[in-house]
Design a protein that fits this description.
Largest sheet: none
Strand content: under 5%
CATH architecture: Orthogonal Bundle
Shape: elongated
CATH superfamily: lambda repressor-like DNA-binding domains
CATH class: Mainly Alpha
Structural class: mainly alpha
Number of strands: 0
């Protein structure tokens, strides 16, 4: 799945499915994974079914499955050159003000 072409709900669902696949590959039951992660069984089931849970639940389950390290690159701020910053700044424009009565 290409995340950049998917809706947020589709990405969440895919993440839940991937975590389920990882859990099964580790031969863990839902109850065991939930206990290790410190989340309720219902929260884990919802994560695997829809992906629509709190960030904390997602991180706890990912951590219990040994996947937290893989999330680190997502939050790395990449340095930009002055030229890149200027280009980004040029492309940002404020919307014009509305005229009264429009």
């Amino acid at each position: 799945m290409l995340f950049n072409l998917a809706t947020a709900q589709e990405v969440a669902s895919e993440l839940g499915q991937r975590l389920r696949t990882r859990r099964l590959a580790l031969n863990q039951s839902q109850a065991e994974t939930a206990a290790r992660a410190g989340v309720s069984l219902g929260a884990l089931r919802k994560l695997e079914r829809t992906g629509l849970v709190t960030v904390e639940v997602l991180l706890r389950v990912a951590g219990s499955l040994g996947l937290l390290q893989q999330l680190e690159p997502v939050f790395v701020i990449r340095p930009m050159s002055i030229e890149q910053m200027e280009a980004a700044n040029r492309s940002r424009r404020r919307a014009g003000r509305r005229k009264e009565g429009s």
